Every structure is written in C-alpha cells, then in structure tokens.
Please model this.
Amino acid sequence: PKKVMYNTAHVAEVIHEAKEFGFTINGEVTFDWGKLKLFRDRYIKRLNGIYEGGLDKMNIDRITGLAA
Model:
C-alpha cells in the first residue's frame, strides 16, 4: 500500500510540473480518492492471496485472529 500511495503522489507531482518539460495538459485534471482506495484495496487483496498461496505451498499453518 505504501508503494501505491507513493506512486500516486509522484504522478500528481509529474502532472503539476509537466509544462516545464514541454507537455500541455488540456482540460481539468481530477483525482478520485475513492477510486484510488478501491484499486489500492484490490492490490492488497491480491498480494495477500499471493502470500497465502506461498505459505500453503510450504505447508505452513496460519493462525488467523486478533491480538489483545
């Protein structure tokens, strides 16, 4: 998730400085936090699935719960 947030900030900065590199952005540039959260959550879910699959292949038992 940190990578997603870093890349989002980087893209915003690149758009902000684009004119200094010869780019013209016509129209309004908008940002949707809800959409970013949706895609970030999907990315995390996919990563968790990859990690769980790796643990399963190594026959590692997982204990799921909350700590107090």
Summary: The CA atoms of residues 10 and 16 lie 10 Å apart.
